[in-house]
Amino acid sequence: MILLKSTGVLLLLSTNFSCAQQKKPNLILIVTDDQGYADLESFGSNDLETPNIDGIAAAGVRFTQWYANSPVCAPSRAALMTGLYPHNAGVPDLLAPRSPGLSLNRVTLADALKKKGYQTGVFGKWHLGAAADYLPNKRGFDEFFGHLEGTLDYFSHMYYLIRAPRPFHDLWRNTEEAWEEGNYMTHLITREAKQFIRNNKEEPFFMYVAYNAPHQPLHMPKKYLDRFSHLEPQRQRIAAMLAVVDEGVGEIIAQLKKDGLNDNTVVFFMSDNGGANNTKNFLSNEPDQFFYGANNGGLRGHKGSVFEGGIRVPACMSWPGVIPPGTVVDEPGIGMDIYPTFLKIAGAEPPDYMLDGHDLMPRINERKKTPHDVLCWEYAGQYAIRKGKWKLSLNTMLDFRREGPEVFLADLKADREETHNLAGEYPEVVKELRTQLDTWYESVKPNLPSE
To answer: Which candidate in 18, 142, 267, 383 could, as Cys together with 394 as Cys, close a disulfide (CB 3.0–4.6 Å)?
Structure first.
């Protein structure tokens, strides 16, 4: 301890504590797009290179039963930003181009943390509303660099999907168009994230890094494709795109360490839904009817399905000095749990309405059971509910094109791949879960956006 006298005022300086150690923890949420459950080495892949994302799991906790709140992008992200079921957040489905999105009466994670003195930034895919009042800078974010819609060309940054009447450019810095033609989108997201860290190292920050990879179109620089030339072409593309993402995550962690922030930073990583098998992933007139490049770890279903393959995703979290390295949580968790967890860590006030998510830390450090009595999903007329080991799925789809059973009951403890339909053997379980599912859906219906 050093005492200095300056103009009659004693200044107390500590040699043991830096400003970075005294401030509130920095919070980083990293989300990938359409990454399958087993599209990480730490989740079972033996053909990818993901050492940096796996490093988050090794340094902290790996969640083996982590769920997205929806089998598609926008609703899943709405839950992350609000701590609510997508229906309660006003985004139960995909959004049309240039449309409204996240309900304006909901407090976003950025809104809540900003009130607590956090600098806030989002880099990458927004997909929560592109109308004027729904843009990131109107929803609590000080800085935004990325695209507003659900997908774009990785090099020209044009939006081409047939849902739009014509193509348009969709890369923005705050509310101004940004022109970076020829620069790979994943690299740009990483560049902006690193700059945000450098610019805000003296203040606590919340940074949402929303990589659009490996969502279609499956674009990547050739050098990454060449690295995986030994793989089948479809898998090769996914491996190459995720290698660029992993490299970016490594650069972000390295920037934190360089600026002396890593020990005071919480990092959460997850995918927004399961791996996709639709033909939009093809880059040519290939003979296959489905895309087989993603790896959902043998789980039934793909993106667009409420089966496990569409909603169970890889997830991990690190917080040096708080979460012991190598922790594994086998209790169910879900995207909307991140919001209350980050608020609790930051000491921020929750909104004046009840959240659907729950703080994760008791499950991580106290080995508590999940506080969710049930978890529920609804997408495009499909329904699912999980309670304990049981999961009931109704009006199912296997992906965007193929129908599944109308009623499917699985014992996830014995059969996480959902290979055996037990609905006929346990009608009483089906009845109980169906009643609870009906109750849940009736509770969220009042918050659905009007047609």
So the answer is: 383
